Amino acid sequence: MPNLHQIKSEQTRERLMDAALEVMQAKGLASLSMHEVARIAGMTTGAVQHHFPSKAALMLQIIERLVQQIDTDDSFWPAPHWPLQRRADHFVQQAWRRLYGQPRFAVAWEAYLAVRADAAMVAHIQAARAPINDKLLLRMLRSFPEWAGGPAAEARFQLVLSCLRGLGVLAPFSSPAAIEQQLQQLSVLLQSFSSEVTP
Question: Could you tell me which residue ranges the HTH tetR-type domain spans (predicted)?
């Protein structure tokens, strides 16, 4: 059971993440900085950096919190008894609207790329992202049981996520119509994976 200090620390972290989202929504992606987050949260920059040593670490936690919410939200995941096309369409649209198409996703990757020369931070991000991907893969296999015994299930899942990440990064330079067409094709690709592994 967490003690009072741990509870207060977690509450502070939640407050800082909410402040970061407020900055993004009010002023746009370029305005997100540790100083601005501190100002909105009513804290010092040093206090913010005590909880999040960099913008990349802050964004990683925001994405992790979002994924945790999705992991426990059954409305995000298609039911395994639905027809395959409905499941694929549902997953692609939900993943885009609630995760990869969100402005905070592009901010997170901007922050990740900014620290790619920092080996220690890269290792930290890789370690933190691993359980996030594991959670998503487990839920994906429940929604698409055809994959469970098939070859390269994880690689295929990662390919789908890579497509969504690419769309998320390039979204500011794409039209909504072009993105929607690509999401439809991604659903077709997802369905083809299942047909390949079904006996």
Answer: 10-70
pTM to 2 decimal places: 0.74
pLDDT 10s per residue in the chain (199 long)?
A: 567 777 788 888 888 888 887 887 677 666 778 888 889 889 899 988 898 888 778 877 877 777 677 767 788 899 999 999 999 999 999 999 988 898 777 777 776 777 778 787 788 778 877 888 888 888 899 999 988 777 788 899 899 999 999 999 888 899 999 999 999 999 999 999 875 544 4
Same domain, 41 and 71: no
The residue type of 21 is L
d(CA 164, CA 88): 13
Taking 3-state DSSP, the helix, strand and coil percentages for the chain, each rounded to the nearest 5, stand at 80, 0, 20
Query: Are 124 and 185 contained in the same domain?
Result: yes
